[in-house]
Amino acid sequence: MHPRDETARTLLRLGKTEFDMLSADALPDSPAHDWTATLAVTRAQDASVWTLRPLHLGLPDAAEGTRAEIRTLAIDSEDAFRAALDAWSDAADADDGGVGVRLLIGIALQGPPEIAARWRTSDGWRAIDRVFLEGQPGARLWKDGTPPPPDDLPPERVARFTSSFGVEAYQRLRRSTAVVIGAGGTGSVAIPMLARAGVGKIVIVDSDLISPSNLERTHASFPEHIETPTLKAALARDHVRRIDPDIEVIAFDGRLPQRAIVEEVAQADVLLGCTDQHTSRLVVSDMARRYLVPAIDCGGLIEGANGLVTGQIIQLVLFRSHDPCPRCRGMVDDMRMRQELMSPEERQALLEAAGDQAPPPEAHEIPQIDTVGYITTVSGTLAAGYAIGWLTGRFEPPFERMQMNLIAECLDVTDRPQPVDEACSCQDERGLGDSGELPFAIPAHWGAARRL
Ligand SMILES: [Zn+2]
Predict the structure, then answer these.
(1) Which of 67, 84, 267, 401 is the residue whose CA sits 20 to 30 A from 381?
(2) pLDDT under 70 in the chain at which residues?
């Protein structure tokens, strides 16, 4: 299976569950272990992305895929990997019986994994441009049989960051891409935090204009952005450009799962969900599984009203490819999703059709979620911080779903882990790429995403 344009970049992604299984047999002094696996193919504008399916599962019928041969072995040095690579290269020209991708993973006894990968074109074998191992951001790709070159040294402005986390952590951020869904209360602070730390590419997605009630919490927003209608995504993009003009920043007026945004997610290192929409949360988790891109969802709300505040809640939820989905977690409400997907005209039509009768529940306005700037700021900052932990490999979130209440004793911090619901099919969806059904059909009134 070949990309439509052989000059396009080719990317290969492995989820954590599959990588752990592949590497478990690579023990010192053991022979190399060979696996065959199925990869789903996702075609983006200028890239092809292969995603590894669970090792016991293939693709649904008629879905586009390719066969991969994966060899894992334990190594104790670069020289050991070079020797293995030479032997592997000699074998590559042999008849592979329809293998489209070959992957060699050296599991180093100390340090990050070393990887070589190639795919078959009509002209023979070609190098793969990037390999993502979920949870292994330090993995080194040997393109064309040579280890990666050293990176540039970091600038003075990140001196405190590099003295804490190390120069290599900054260099990993510089090579990383983060996609942030939502540029309001939480997103408008997560985005500049990622930019200031040094993330090399940031993709910003939001379809809303700044409104007067956003001024209380959306960072970098001012009254002038009400006088001149301003998209939240454009505002956040301009904020990043002022922080560091060398960051590649792309802004979309749009929403997941619109195609142009999906293609960016499939090539990203991390995905942040920064909206309070049930549909958005569901699709962020879906993208994380399909394309093996780890995601963090964040939010915050005030409980109580009219001066009687009973709770000030911050929540972060991890949606890595192996984590239970929002349905397993009971975090999405189908009626609420129907409300979110409905156009104002459709809602009006439902109200009119009801006449003197009570309208169906979908026709009601979505209940407002109250929140305030310091809550969304803390939540968005924490999400950016844990994303930096993943991107650098320096730390992991010590929870699966964290909630804290700012006005409870010791903040009442709780982790709410949840097993995967046996009746839910989400774990079979790992690495599905474009195959299978999206969690909901894109409503006609959304149209296509517009790149700003
Ligand atoms: Zn599930």
Answers:
(1) 267
(2) 1-7, 91-98
Q: How far is the CA of 285 from the centre of ligand 1 (A)?
A: 9
Distance of alpha carbon 114 from alpha carbon 23, whole angstroms: 12
Domain spans in the chain, listed from the N-terminal domain onward: 9-141, 157-451
Q: Please, which residues have CB less than 5 A from ligand 1, an ion?
A: 325, 327-328, 424, 426
What is the Cα–Cα distance from 385 to 169, expressed in whole angstroms?
Answer: 13
- Residue found by looking up tokens 């299978």 in the block: 436
Q: pLDDT by residue (tens digit) across 171-223?
A: 999 999 999 999 999 999 999 999 999 999 999 999 999 999 999 999 999 99
Ligand 1 centroid–CA 326 distance in Å is 6
- Flag whether the pTM goes above 0.85: yes
CA–centroid distance, residue 427 to ligand 1 (Å): 7
Q: How far is the CA of 200 from the centre of ligand 1 (A)?
A: 32
Q: Is 157-451 assigned to CATH 3.40.50.720?
A: yes
Cα(224) to centroid(ligand 1), Å: 44
Record the tokens describing residue 223, joined without a space. Answer: 């009254």
Q: Among 3.40.140, 3.30.70, 3.40.50, 2.10.260, what is the CATH number of 9-141?
A: 3.40.140
* Cα–Cα distance measured from residue 307 to residue 304, given in angstroms and rounded to the nearest whole number: 8
User: Ligand 1 mean position to 167 CA, how many Å?
Assistant: 38
Q: The tokens 């002094």 sit on which residue? A: 29
Give me the pLDDT at residue 304, please.
Answer: 87
